[in-house]
Design brief:
single chain; alpha+beta; Serine Threonine Protein Phosphatase 5, Tetratricopeptide repeat; Alpha-Beta Plaits; 28 helices; 71% helix; elongated
């Protein structure tokens, strides 16, 4: 090493301290040309190369710094370079190479006295444990890093340990304690106690964890602080990461044009740094924004780019399939994602999509299970946005199951929480679901008002797919308001008992054959008594008859036909049937109102191979085989009700 080379190192370090990244880089590049360049110079060159968007130079410089430190006998700094090189390869989606460098660093430190590098090793091991789902180990290793940083007096190590510990604690189900740890680390960044690179990491991980928790208010606050810090320090690497999170928050608040611009710029900037994983998050955010605006080809392209860069494109990809009408593909995609994701916060985002997709597929059982799990997660983490999403999902399920009173209770909570979160798109979708619940109660004029408000919000946002959907809902509602008339009908709901278990036993092909036979048989029997098929609800039917006697005759014939098939063919599904006579509003080809809701609940209390009829339906009607009355609670109906079984084998 020449004296000239030695003299340039302090100048380069001084330039780096001023954040004159290019000046420092130019000095260090000339030094690196010397075959005996010291590890200290190569280490600083790697950092400067990163800031001036030369990631390849940064990686080569770290590898050379490792070798130089080894030659100098400085195993602690050599190990530190090995750990940073591992992180570089991990960012470039080369996990095998990253694992090799991490193991090399750990081996070098095994017989060295405790140092800052041991703290970095604990940090990297904590990240690995968290990525593998071992949150207790992640928290323990992060706590070790904090302790090491404290003992050796390295604030960077302390802060990195705190954010890893905080993130793992949040994901482990203790958000209050985890957020305090994240705020403590971020406070050190605000105070200027940390190096620029570590400051950026602390901000990024804090914001990312807040986003995972759906604590968008806190995420937004730290995003603005990080953005201002980047601008003050003339830093142009971390803004790409910050912009991804900022775009997500802007999208939540309905600022979609600005959000799309931020996400695009962030992704392109991160690619210039070869920050592949972070760029994939940017493209995914871009896909979700475009999906909301109705730019389906653009959303498809963005999700493809995110997937190519290593990011699982769910739930966005599944929702894209739903938007283009590929419901089976959507259901399969979201189910595959949920099968491998164990982190509860990550599952919450997937579950919300599964509810929407399952309802579109007519699979109320799956939708209800997903909504219930989402509610459990929201209750555990007490996040306003998670709770809003869970109440919205439950409300949608109740509407799909013709349970309007239960739906309105959930949607009332969702509406208030989305308003508190300042999420206009989610609020408008909630109001449209609210309109459907009101329609089911027969309150058509009130439903029109809600649907009009939802459509106006979608127009302001530029959510064209939702504008069209709300338009269709409004057309139907207005038509019903103009032409709807109250009619007395005997409503019948049928359902195959244990259909999910049966499907698992006999398989898809046999189930398809059985379901076709069941559908054809029940349709034919109902039609013979003048039954009107209103819709096919899940694994059963909703029929309307002009009088109770016709409904009872049809129900008896259905059960007898099923029993005959069991004797002759060896098997027929077990079916429950409920009958309830009530008034409802005829809107187009369907009936809406409280009476329909009550009829659906009466059907749900019947047992396998049983017919039940509400007591109120028996006025002036003589039904043979009527069993003893039993008092039941109908889900979503206040108080108790009385039903009678009908012995169809004796009538």
């Amino acid at each position: 090493m020449t004296a000239t080379v030695d003299a340039r190192l302090p100048d380069a370090r001084a330039a780096a301290d001023r954040h004159a990244w290019q000046e420092a880089y130019d000095l260090l590049v000339t030094m690196a040309e010397e075959p005996d360049a010291p590890g200290e110079a190569l280490e600083l060159l790697a950092e400067m190369a990163w800031w001036v968007q030369r990631p390849d130079v940064a990686l080569r410089a770290r590898e050379r710094a490792y070798a130089a430190y080894m030659a100098e006998g400085d195993h602690i700094h050599a190990a530190f370079m090995a750990l940073l090189t591992a992180q570089d390869h991990n960012d470039h989606l080369a996990p095998a190479i990253a694992g090799g460098w991490l193991a090399r660093g750990a081996r070098l430190l095994a017989d060295q006295p405790e140092s800052f590098a041991h703290g970095y090793l604990a940090v990297f091991q904590s990240r690995g444990a968290a990525a593998g789902g071992d949150l207790p180990a992640a928290m323990s290793l992060a706590a070790d890093a904090v302790a090491i940083g404290t003992r050796v007096g390295n604030k960077d190590v302390q802060a990195l340990g705190l954010v890893c510990q905080g993130s793992a604690t949040v994901h482990g189900g203790n958000p209050a304690e985890g957020l305090l740890l994240l705020d403590e680390a971020s406070a050190a960044a605000v105070a200027g106690e940390l190096s620029p690179f570590v400051t950026g990491i602390v901000y990024c991980q804090t914001i990312s964890t807040c986003r995972d928790l759906a604590d968008y208010r806190r995420a937004g606050q730290w995003t603005e602080v990080a953005k201002q810090w980047c601008e003050r320090q003339s830093i142009s690497g971390f803004p790409g990461v910050c912009r991804v999170h900022r775009a997500e928050i802007m999208a939540l608040h309905g600022e979609w044009t600005e959000a799309e611009r931020e996400a695009t710029r962030a992704s392109e900037e991160l690619m210039s740094f070869k920050a592949t994983f972070q760029a994939s998050e940017g493209y995914y955010a871009l896909g979700e924004i475009r999906l909301r605006t109705g730019d389906l080809p653009g959303a498809d392209e963005a999700f493809r780019l995110a997937q190519d860069l290593g990011r699982d494109p769910q739930p966005g990809r599944a929702l894209y399939y739903l938007a283009i009408g590929r419901i089976e593909a959507a259901a399969s995609a979201i189910q595959r994602a949920l099968a491998i994701v164990t982190d509860r916060l990550a599952r919450a985002r997937l579950l919300a999509a599964q509810v929407e997709i399952a309802i579109a597929a007519g699979d109320i059982t799956t939708a209800r299970a997903a909504a219930d799990e989402a509610r459990t997660i929201a209750d555990a983490y007490q996040s306003v946005a998670l709770q809003a999403a869970a109440h919205s999902a439950l409300g949608a399920v109740h509407v799909a199951a013709s349970e309007p009173d239960l739906a309105l209770a959930e949607l009332t909570r969702a509406r208030a929480l989305w308003q508190a979160t300042d999420a206009p798109y989610e609020l408008a979708r909630t109001r449209l679901t609210w309109a459907e619940a009101l329609r089911q109660r027969g309150e058509v004029q009130e439903a029109v008002i809600e649907a009009e408000a939802a459509q106006a919000a979608f127009i302001r946002l530029g959510a064209m797919e939702e504008v069209n959907r709300s338009g269709r809902v409004l057309d139907s509602l207005r038509s019903g308001a103009e032409r709807g008339e109250r009619q007395q009908r005997a409503f019948m709901f049928t359902d195959i008992v244990g259909s999910t278990e049966l499907l698992g036993v006999i398989g898809d092909e046999a189930w398809g054959d059985l379901k076709r036979w069941h559908d054809q048989t029940l349709r034919a029997v109902a039609a013979a008594q003048g039954g009107e098929e209103v819709n096919e609800a899940g694994d059963g039917f909703f029929f309307a008859f002009r009088d109770v006697q016709s409904a009872v005759t049809s129900a008896v014939a259905m059960q007898r036909t099923l029993a005959d098939h069991r004797r002759t063919a060896g098997f027929a599904p077990r079916v429950r049937i409920g009958i309830h006579c009530a008034e409802a509003t005829k809107v187009d080809s369907t009936y809406v109102g409280q009476g329909v809701h009550e009829a659906a609940r009466v059907g749900s209390v019947a047992g396998p191979n049983e017919i039940v009829i509400s007591t109120t339906s028996l006025a002036g009607v003589s039904v043979q085989g009527l069993g003893e009355a039993r008092t039941v609670e109908l889900k979503g109906i206040a108080g108790t009700s009385v039903v009678h079984p009908i012995d169809w084998s004796a009538t």
